[in-house]
Design brief:
Length: 309
């Protein structure tokens, strides 16, 4: 691996997932190693995402993954065996009590001014083992103190090998660029040691930059509000090539990708989502300001999770 810092087990997409557990509730993360086919529950009649945004607290019944950061000691930077942690370019990550949406703790992330900067938690499986259903929903409470003026930034991502070419990785993400929200889809060949290294979704310095597909239609006006808690919800569907984002229960229609031909040229969903990345990332253009973000109450499910009270 290059100069990024990774804490956990292994350094590539083929590394085994540390600490796989059974589904359940409570603090920390729990992932069922074989989630199975996604349920149709919670979706609209047209097969799109549910629009009711039913309220959920704690770890909802049927959730695939839950994390509230309460079980970790103050100042924890190593979240194994539940998560692999990854920082690069001066990014920092720790569990602390500076700001929490619920309980007393959250994940506190910082990145400095400049180019490629990352602070992520990661869960990944071998390329032949599904981690998340091809159609899944997520929610995380987000507090961001500022946004870069131009740089591309991300909050959540999921990816895996393409069915047509397992040596290419298809990745979905949600974040923003140029001050507005932006979905993003990329296809990228593995880099480094021939595997997909344990890292965030963007390149490190010295990596080949050319993505075979890189589609990110920026929203016209919709953006993330700073200096308050925001309920950040998403839906990724690798079967119908769709992405949807909801902020505080309201769909951000300008940031939707609907699978219509031409919306995102060359789009192919992965054969399985084998990796999830949650955190703060900035790249493409240097950020003009230091970033600080807090994450809390993360849930991933096969149906819409909704926002906590």
């Amino acid at each position: 691996m290059s100069s990024g810092s990774a804490i956990g087990n292994g350094g590539g997409q083929d590394a085994a997932v540390p600490g796989s557990g059974s589904s359940g509730s409570g603090s920390g993360v729990s992932i069922d190693g074989a989630p199975g086919s996604p349920s149709d529950g919670g979706r609209g009649d047209d097969g799109g995402p549910a629009l009711d945004g039913s309220v959920a607290t704690g770890c909802p019944l049927g959730a695939i993954l839950c994390e509230d950061f309460e079980k970790y000691l103050l100042g924890t930077t190593n979240l194994t065996p539940d998560w692999l942690t990854y920082t690069y370019g001066g990014g920092t990550l720790q569990v602390d009590t500076t700001k929490a949406h619920a309980g007393t703790k959250s994940l506190h992330l910082t990145t400095p001014v400049g180019g490629r900067k990352y602070a992520d938690i990661i869960r990944q499986n071998p390329p032949d083992k599904e981690l998340l259903p091809l159609r899944h929903y997520g929610r995380v409470m987000v507090w961001v103190t500022a946004l870069p003026s131009v740089a591309h930034w991300n909050i959540n991502q999921a990816g895996g090998p393409l069915a047509a070419n397992p040596n290419l990785i298809g990745k979905y993400s949600y974040g923003g660029q140029n001050g507005v929200l932006s979905p993003n889809y990329t296809q990228r060949a593995p880099v480094g040691d021939g595997l997909m290294p344990l890292r965030g979704g963007g390149p490190e310095n010295g990596d080949p930059n050319a993505a075979l597909v890189d589609c990110g239609p920026n929203a016209a006006t919709q953006k993330l509000v700073t200096n308050q808690w925001v309920c950040w919800e998403w839906m990724f569907d690798g079967q119908t090539n769709q992405q949807h984002l909801f902020l505080d229960g309201k769909e951000q229609t300008e940031a939707a990708v609907t699978g219509v031909p031409g919306t995102c040229g060359g789009w192919q969903g992965p054969k399985a989502f084998t990796k999830i990345i949650v955190g703060w990332e900035q790249y493409t253009q240097p950020s003009d300001k230091p970033q600080e973000a807090f994450l809390d109450d993360l849930v991933v499910s096969n149906q819409r999770v909704g926002c906590p009270p």
